[in-house]
Amino acid sequence: MKLVVGLGNPGKKYERTRHNVGFLVVDELERRGLPAGVRTLKPDTFMNLSGDAVVENIRQTNMTAADVLVIYDDADLPFGEIRFRSSGSSGGHNGVKSIIERLGTQDFPRVRVGIGRSANPHVPLDAYVLETWTSEETAKLGEMIGRAADRAMQWLKS
User: Fold this and answer.
1) Is the pLDDT confidence value at 114 over 90?
2) 40 φ, ψ to 5°?
3) Are strands 110-114 and 82-85 parallel, antiparallel or unpaired?
4) What's the CA gap between 100 and 120, in Å, rounded?
5) Burial of 120 by CB count in 10 Å (0-12 exposed, 13-18 middle, 19+ buried)?
6) How far apart are CA 65 and CA 108, in angstroms?
7) Residue-range definition of the domain harbouring residue 101
8) Considering its fold, how many domains does the chain have in total?
9) pTM, two decimal places
10) Quick check: 71 and 26 in contact, CB under 8 A?
11) Is the pLDDT assigned to residue 133 strictly greater than 90?
């Protein structure tokens, strides 16, 4: 059994924000169809409490942290860049930090989806990630989501 977790915030207010790209990738994976034995999770907690939802889900099964793939936005990557990591620190991402704290390990795989940073240096990161996509980003969003889903599928089939 494997669990794919897309990070984001619940509710209509956050649906089309940069911070919810993990939810969008999970939606794409579900649309494509998942291999047998794979569950998905879009935590209904807010980002900073994502670890609670992840721990609750893996406790219900015999999964370990290594069976959990976390997909999330990464402002340190340029918009559209996708990176896979098998473990590592939170990189300052509060959702990932919560998961690390609750699991007691940083040894779980993740797909980082680049959202870049604001061109305006006066926009704080916590405000930027909660903004909706620009029209330029929206035009490229489907392709980016597709590539992130492709990378997640590679891990699921490995």
Assistant:
1) yes
2) -120, 160
3) antiparallel
4) 31
5) exposed
6) 5
7) 2-156
8) 1
9) 0.97
10) yes
11) yes
Give the list of residues 6+ apart from residue 109 with CB closer than 8 angstroms, or none: 66, 68, 69, 70, 84, 85, 86, 87, 155
pLDDT digits (tens, 9 = 90+) for 142-152: 999 999 999 99
Residue type, 146: G
Catalytic residue flag (residue 93): no
| Active-site option among 19, 42, 110, 151 | 19
> What pLDDT, in 10s, does the model give residues 29-83?
999 999 999 999 999 999 999 999 999 999 998 899 999 999 999 999 999 999 9
Contact assessment for residue 115 and residue 73, using Cβ atoms and an 8 Å cutoff: yes
Paired sense of beta strands 82-85 and 68-74, if any: unpaired
- The CATH number covering residue 104 comes to 3.40.50.1470
